[in-house]
Amino acid sequence: MLGVVVALTALATDTPAADVKEAQQQLISGNYSTCITQARAALTEREDHEDWNLLLSRALLATGRYEEALHAITNALQQARWSIRVRWQAREVFQSNGQADRAREMVESVLRTIQGQPRSFRDAPNLVVLGQAALLANADPKKVLDTVFEAARKDDPKNRDVYLSMGNLALEKHDYALAAKHFNAGLKELPGDPDLQFGLAQAYAPSDPALMQTALETALSRNSNHVGCLMLLAEYNMDGEDYDAAERYLARVDAVNPFCPDAWAYRAVLAHLHNQPEGEETARKAALKFWRDNPRVDYLIGHKLSQYYRFAEGSAHQRQALEFDSDYLPAKGQLAQDLLRLGQEQEGWQLTEEVQKQDGYDVEAFNLSALHEAMKKYVTLTNRNFIVRMQAREAAVYGQRVLDLLERARTNLCAKYGMELRQPTLVEMFAEQKDFAVRTFGMPGNPGYLGVSFGSVVTATSPASHPSHSVNWQTVLWHEFCHVVTLQLTKNKMPRWLSEGISVYEERQADPAWGERITPRYREMTLSDDLKPVSKLSAAFLAPRSEAHLQFAYYESSLVVEFIVQRYGMERLKQILSDLGEGVEINQALAKRTVPMDQLETEFTEFAQQKARDLAPGLDWEKPPGLERGAATRLSLRQPRTAETNSSDLDFAEAPAGVTNSEAEPGTNFWRLVQRAEDLVESKKWAEAKAPLEKLVKLYPEFIGPDCAYRLLAAAHRELGETNAERQVLAQLAARDDSALGAYRRLMELGAAAKDWPEVAKNAQRYTAVDPLVALPYKYLGQAADELGDTKNGIMAYRAMLALDPADPAEVHFKLAKLLQKEGNPEAKRQVLEALEEAPRYREALKLLLEIEGSATKQAGGT
């Protein structure tokens, strides 16, 4: 009889467990109604079952039935007083219903219970609760990860809550690599789990949109009602300015949970972007319907607005979030970033330190705090309109030139766009790319960026941060300052494509050698479906198919601006910017000031494609058989704002069997001319190579790049001893290419030999606009200045050389002293004394010192 009772008891406990697993799968799969029905039926039979209470509560929360969830969890607390898992779940339910005090009581109750009976909660589910509660009690996150959560994982390697807790903790601290590691570990044990896939998507979102999309697709294939995934897709489309698509995903969220606070927060953002203040406030109130002081709502709204560069509005929402909860660290961290981007540095850095002290694991706060310490050693250069921060050595070498360049940009662009800047612009230049990335994005990475403008604050990399490739720092700063003008003119209410397009366009206007220009690759892309409709251009920046497509987006955007200015006039462009500042959407502003969008897109396509067809009309652009894209790299594309540029401009496949490219008669075919010239150069047939190269230069004079015809033709002339011809070809290249260091260096050398000092000075200046941190161009510039009587540039050149530790400092001090004496600058004596300190027997320096002393004595006697 006893055996029968035991068997019946075992059957009674085994059957509900199997049902719980089935219901849990319904919950994970998004079948929330089925899960609710099953849980309620089970609890009718057995009220105190812990897992059924948890499933019911979670399913009700997932569908926005917050009041029902509150009733259910209240019953569960009475029925399962011993369960810390139920109490932890009750915390979330109380919060969702705006009962913050009761939520805090649950956390305290969990911690008290565990402290009183620590040996009773050693299994994985309870260890997860212990870890989460400990985190809220300010326990060290790393210790929680390494001890509590890791112990839970060892206890049950297939417990999904363990991996979710570990991954979500890393996400919260902006440690995306670690988050991906934990979510991937969970997916090895639980393949396809939609919540783990969603976590993985969040980990990839900041760095790899393609992997994010893959993870989201996998998650939604298992749970098409996954609110987190739908929200992330809504956000992704918002970032691409595809607001209709974002609304569709939010509508899908509504079908699952019509009261989702995050969804209503995003609707508030959309209403703000559409200049609908009433709709914005209505959506915000809906987000706070059940939890009236939920700090996450304003944090989310502000965070998204800041991503749209609405930092003033974003910071206001973060302050509101902190009024709701002064310890809400996400809002405090975001407010710190907003203030730093607004130029309100004192409070911004102070908040950063507070976040770092409160949470030593937060990666963004840690990075920013470390950067703040490093930046205390920076030098600050100022004038009436700019505050420039640089490393001391760089400031000594070319800091004044940075100020001069910025002043020139300000004078030009503010007048052109009718903009009066009311506060100085802060420009910070970083000698290390990681420091630039931390200041700009909060995290190291994003190696492609050269500069970013936030409105009145500009961050940029210095030439020292990218030694492996040449970038003209002057064009970068001109580009970014143009953003300062247009962003402030529109109150930061402009789409990315237009902002970038104007900046690239203005680069070309400032200097013909600057900015993106049409290339053979761009010609091909313009005549294909790579040319995007104007209304879709922002999306081209969000998820480009390749680096080349991202760079093409810059070019196309600038071409739209060029088209508007040429077709409708500069005043129309300024009116469009004014409309944007008033909150008019871009497509409406374009239609208002030009023509309806469909007509504008048609006209622009015709304009762009005609420009492509007009490129080097004397050349045949048809690709010969066997010539395909992607086979080999020939030229690097040019890009104004990013540094990682390894895309191909000319790509050749293998020639057809039995026929080499060099055997084919090139005629005027561009591709065959290039291939023929390269084959001859490679074979060192310099005289023969001149013919195809000269034809390329004549028919396509704007063709530049690392292996362009100019470079190869100059090399041929040099090998043949044709120095004058070499110099002429290099001069043509230097006038068109803003980063041709080799050409500038050779032209300085040839100019000095010919005593053409204006040409030497010009190319020395060009060289320092790319690499200002080597002594060679300053040596030539100083020599040219001496010969031309250009005291100002001579003094600048010799000061720069001294900052760069020259091989013969005595000579440089002496030459600087001579120029200073010409200006009557008393510093001349100190410089000549330093020359003598380096070389005590320096006769010319001794003579100059006597002249300086004699002049001083004479002046003293005269007075």
Summarize the structure.
With 863 residues, the chain is an all-alpha fold.
What structural keywords apply?
five-stranded mixed sheet; mainly alpha; 42 helices; 863 residues; disordered N terminus; 68% helix; Glutaredoxin
What's the layout of helices and strands?
Elements: H1 2-28, H2 32-45, H3 50-62, H4 66-79, H5 84-96, H6 100-116, H7 124-136, H8 141-155, H9 160-172, H10 176-189, H11 194-204, H12 209-222, H13 227-239, H14 243-256, H15 261-273, H16 277-287, H17 295-307, H18 311-324, H19 329-342, H20 345-358, H21 363-375, E1 379-382, E2 386-390, H22 392-417, E3 425-430, H23 433-441, E4 451-453, E5 457-461, H24 473-489, H25 496-510, H26 520-526, H27 537-542, H28 547-568, H29 570-581, H30 586-593, H31 597-613, H32 670-682, H33 686-699, H34 709-719, H35 723-736, H36 741-753, H37 757-768, H38 776-788, H39 791-803, H40 809-822, H41 827-838, H42 843-862
Helix pairs in contact: 1-2, 1-3, 2-3, 3-4, 3-5, 4-5, 5-6, 6-7, 7-8, 8-9, 9-10, 9-11, 10-11, 11-12, 13-14, 13-15, 14-15, 15-16, 15-17, 17-18, 17-19, 18-19, 19-20, 20-21, 22-24, 22-39, 24-25, 25-28, 26-31, 28-29, 29-30, 32-33, 33-34, 34-35, 35-36, 36-37, 37-38, 38-39, 39-40, 40-41, ...
